[in-house]
Design a protein that fits this description.
Blueprint lengths: L6 E6 L37 E4 L3 E2 L9 H12 L3 E3 L1 H10 L3 H14 L4 H11 L3 E13 L10 E12 L4 E12 L9 E3 L5 E3 L10 H14 L21
Parallel strand pairs: 1-2, 1-5, 2-5, 3-5
Antiparallel strand pairs: 1-6, 5-6, 6-7, 8-9
Helix pairs in contact: 1-5, 2-3, 3-4
């Protein structure tokens, strides 16, 4: 029989598999082990049906990165893997059920320190009835245009992290990933002319812009949500027939 408990899912950029282990939610942001698309064996000990989602943690220093929130929540809902309570709904449920303060502390600790304390995590999960909590971080949201006088490409980069915690503080799944898209290669020598005095004039209109960032972010979100593991609940054992052929 599986334990049914609440868990937290947190978003972030993709990194290699760190192994299957129990780890509480405390510690520095970079300390979280990250799991690939393989399901951590410990995941199967939890019967997860409903997942509460925390609000986005934007550490990119670019306020536009909050645009990823809508992409994330739509992707989660469309995945069909679990019943995801969107961040606004999760916060309202916590307030209605008497754990608003605990939810706010949980959200604040994630946004400010990228940690989740076990006490508030357990209390919020138990009160709201979720089986998990999802949290995510955007640490890069950047468009860089190549210098008009230099060879190279313009680049767009988005870095995301997702983490899943159980109500008891166990890290069940985590992934980091950075997606970089580049423009066509730019060579200023192809678009330079000289004046009669020998002065070089560059054509700035030929410098390729960085790829649009929202499609890059959407592709990254979709790819990462697709790798969230889904463990089917264990089937109930068949009843043994009684003597005489009946049930």
């Amino acid at each position: 029989m599986f334990r049914k408990i609440a868990m937290v899912l947190v978003l972030a950029a993709a990194v290699p598999l760190a192994g299957c282990q129990k780890k509480t939610t405390g510690g520095a942001a970079g300390d979280l082990p990250v799991v690939t698309t393989d399901v951590d064996p410990i995941f199967e000990e939890y019967d997860i049906q409903t997942v509460g989602v925390l609000n986005i943690a934007n550490t990119s220093n670019n306020r536009d990165a909050v645009d990823l929130k809508k992409m994330m929540e739509i992707a989660l809902l469309q995945s069909g893997k679990y019943k995801f309570d969107k961040s606004d709904r999760f916060a309202k449920d916590a307030a209605r059920l008497g754990v608003e303060a605990g939810h706010k502390r949980l959200q604040h600790s994630w946004e400010q320190a990228l940690t989740l304390d076990d006490i508030n995590l357990k209390a919020v999960c138990e009160a709201t009835g979720v089986d998990a909590v999802l949290a995510y971080e955007v640490s890069q949201w950047d468009e860089q245009k190549v210098d008009m006088y230099q060879e190279g490409t313009s680049k767009t980069s988005v870095r995301l992290r997702i983490v899943i915690f159980a109500a008891d503080g166990t890290l069940l799944w985590s992934k980091k990933r950075q997606m970089v898209k580049e423009s066509n290669y730019y060579n200023p020598d192809l678009y330079t002319r000289s004046t009669q005095s020998g002065e070089a004039i560059y054509d700035e209109s030929k410098v390729p812009p960085a790829p649009p960032i929202k499609p890059v972010a959407q592709e990254l979100v979709t790819e990462m949500v697709d790798t969230i593991p889904k463990v089917s609940p264990a089937e109930e054992p068949a009843e043994e027939p009684v003597e005489g052929g009946g049930w």
